Amino acid sequence: MSKYRKLIVTTALAATLAAPVYAGTYGLGRPALPEEVAAWDLDVSPNGTGLPAGSGSVMDGEEIFADQCAVCHGDFAEGVGNWPKLAGGADTLDHEDPLKTVGSYWPYLSTTWDYVNRSMPFGNAQTLEVDEVYAIVAYILYSNDLVEEEFVLSQDNFLEVDMPNRDGFILDDRDKTEYSVFNDSCMSDCKASVEITMRALVLDVTPEETAAKGAAVEVAPVEQSVAEEVVIDDIVALDPELVAKGAKTFMKCKACHQVGEGAKNKTGPVLNGIVDASVGQVDGFKYSKPMIAAAEDGLVWTEEELSAFLTKPKTYMKGTRMSFSGLRKEKDIAAVIAYLRSFSQ
Amino acid sequence: MSESNKKNSPSRRQFLTGAASVGAGALAAGTTHASGPDPLITQVQDWASGTGDGVDVTPYGLPIQFEQDVVRRNVEWLTADTISSINFTPIHALDGTITPQGCAFERHHSGAIELRKEDYRLMINGLVDQELVFTYEDLERFPRENHVYFCECAANTGMEWAGAQLNGAQFTHGMIHNMEYTGVSLRTLLQEAGIKPEGKWIYVEGADASSNGRSIPLEKALDDVLVAFKANGEALRKEHGYPVRLVVPGWEGNMWIKWLRRIEVKDSPVESREETSKYTDNLANGIARKWTWVMDAKSIITSPSPQAPIKHGTGPLVITGLAWSGNGAITGVDVSIDGGKTWVEARLAAPGQDKAMTRFYLDHIWDGSEMLLQARAKDATGYVQPTKTQLREVRGLNSIYHNNCIQTWWVNESGEAENVEVS
User: Please, are residues B350 and B397 in contact by the beta-carbon 8 Å criterion?
Assistant: First the structure.
């Protein structure tokens, strides 16, 4: 031990010597402009600081929620699959499997407003108008039976909403409840017997040991797609550089769409063979009403149609569930279509 | 290459048979005698005759092909989507203390974004004398520091609250990495802007769509928090917040904001999503702890473990693992081979460092009998890592976060290990 102590002393000394000397300011950086602070300083605090003026009703919220949020969170904020449930769970916090939602767990309404405003919808954050955020938050409150159907949330009544679990938190108390008792350093005869009480292999939920999927986006090898001659022509015409660029652009789509071998429907449908396919035909995917209507009209995803859709999805097809603002650059659209074309069925 | 292959083809065949017999020999216990001359020694091998890669083949290298299984892995059923998810460091296959960036765990809330240094801006605003904007180049002109720290997700081992679940140290304890950071003290940047007397907290957020904002008390912000741009000597990886991340030593990984874009000095915490609905610890009575920032002392035997079984039979066995504490330096690690009845002190590879990982070894002679392997960390505050039972007595089963219990590996007579719970 004495050897160790000496080492620690030396390390401490070295640390002191290495620390830079602080002498006032360095005159680096530049003053932030008011517009810049306004653009980034969006956080909202429990007392309402930072909340912009505006309002939104439960009724409006229901419609916006169905368009923008329901694909993951469900029409009634009940959550789809493994996506977060935003409603329900009242009085379950002391149960075996507590359901922690905005209604049952979140202590402050400001947190919901702030999070919806800055980070939602997933894959299309910071696109909602202030009044839309108010409306969505009002609808989430309604889904939790915390307000009536006619309720309108605004900056004026924001602090009046009663959050059920407001008092459900205590400050970290480990220093009192744990640190004084977690000091057992018994070295021998620490217990009389040891029995195995549970085994992970019996539960069997560990993933199979396979090498991780390559970090780089896989561009489908050309050989794989040589099923029909028509396809060969298409593939030969594909510019590998453009396909590679498209693979990069597709990162924006990956939040919701999978493509390639083993791809599954996620928030959005599988995109294998989507170019020149009929609209709305992916097995097992629940399409929006306008998408179903377009399918019934016999719309085909030609390059032209796909380009138009990807430029501004919500303008091209009002009511689509695809909550993506669109690709601004034409060359990005061409690249992503080339990339999609490299995946046949 | 093809030339040398042709020349050596007979010996290649023999090499293959030779290798098989060497493999079989390795399973036998103790010291073995060679059954005959080893062709790997007696015959000229390809690599000893031909040539290898030139210096222009690999401008930036990845591990050799034989190490392809030493990679991050994820658990699909944990989250709805891999964009907002986590993967695990292959700690079972690493040694030493520094985690290579390429296999250090990732946790994103809106995916790993690509942000160029040229497009990077850091804003300091709020209760300061002068609100400021820095470029990446500005940050490089402040005095720099180097420190090694561990970064552990608060949910590390979180799946094990209710019982032994995942069979591997990578999955039970792999939401952690330990790197040497280069950056600027946050204190220096805050002093540059000048903190007003009402300033008691900072709120930090990232440039990605999740923003992942967190409130940090000013006391910590002025203590040891680092605005880092290098890890293990090179630029941060995209998945760890390139070009700039926050390093909050000893505190839960969620606070280590990646793609750091704004620091606001405030008089009170924001109570953001990540510090209310998440990263709060539910107790058995339904009340939750909040502001549980510190990661308490913890250790894990990385080998042998379920993914790293004993393959060499009885005799000398290196039992090794990692220990760390957010409250200071590790002062010792005890190891038990009988499920906690008796303990022996392990050897620390180097004296424990403040809020950084420590590697420990127990040089053991294995007699081939079953073992219930456990490790127990002790830190500079006198804290001793608790058992699962001790933790559950205080917190119940629903805490999710901050599970730093003693882990048990059950090693059977053939050297295979399994994640178990013991009485």
Answer: no
HEC sequence for A3-51 = HHHHHHHHHHHHHHHHCCCCCCCCCCCEECCHHHHHHHCCCCCCCCCCC
Contacts of A194 in chain B (CB under 8 A): 338-341, 372, 422-423
User: Which residue among A45, A168, A184 places its CB closest to the CB of B384?
Assistant: A184
Instruction: Tell me the pLDDT of chain A averaged across its residues.
Output: 84
**CB B334 to CB A185 under 8 A?**
yes
- Cβ A198–B143 below 8 Å, yes or no? no
Helices A130-143 & A109-119 angle (0-180, nearest 10) = 130
Q: B57 vs B53, B54, B61, B314, B351, CA distance in Å?
A: 6, 6, 9, 42, 39
How far apart (Å, rounded) are the C-alpha atoms in residues B310 and B70? 17
User: In this structure, are residues B143 and B184 in contact, taking their beta carbons and an 8 Å threshold?
Assistant: yes
Helical spans, DSSP H, in B209-361? 218-221, 273-276
- The alpha carbon dihedral of B413, B305, B363, B339 has a sign of negative
Residues 6+ apart with CB under 8 A from B193: B124, B128, B129, B130, B131, B132, B265
Inter-chain residue contact B209 with A32, CB threshold 8 Å:
no
How many residues are present in chain B?
Answer: 423
Establish whether the linkage from the previous residue to B10 is cis, with ω within 30° of 0. no
Domains, in order of start, for chain B = 2-51 (no CATH), 73-289 (3.90.420.10), 298-420 (2.60.40.650)
**Span A74-114, pLDDT tens digits:** 999 999 988 999 999 999 999 988 999 999 999 999 999 99
Nearest Cα neighbor of B14 from B24, B22, B3 is: B22
Residue B329 has pLDDT above 90, yes or no: yes
Q: Terminus-to-terminus CA distance in chain B, angstroms?
A: 59
Give the A:B interface size as CB pairs under 8 Å.
287
Residue A195 has its nearest CB partner, among B87, B110, B422, at B422
Q: Which amino acid is it at A18?
A: A
- Supply B81's token pair: 């989507």
Summarised one tens digit per residue, pLDDT across range A215-231 is 333 333 333 333 333 33
State both tokens at B415.
């050297």
- Which of B89, B133, B160 should be substituted to probe chain A, the one whose Cβ sees the most A Cβ atoms within 10 Å? B133
- How far is it, in rounded angstroms, from Cα B406 to Cα A137? 42
Residue B347, classed as helix, strand or coil, is: strand
The token duo for A176 is: 């009192």
ipTM of the complex: 0.89
CB A133 within 8 A of CB A109: no
The alpha carbon of B117 is separated from its chain's Cα centroid by a whole number of angstroms, namely 26
**Do the strands A169-171 and B288-290 form a parallel or antiparallel pair, or are they unpaired?**
parallel
Separation of alpha carbons A96 and A103, rounded Å = 18
**Which of A7, A177, A185 to mutate against chain B (most B CBs within 10 Å)?**
A185
- Ordered domains of chain A (ranges, CATH): 52-160 (1.10.760.10), 222-341 (1.10.760.10)
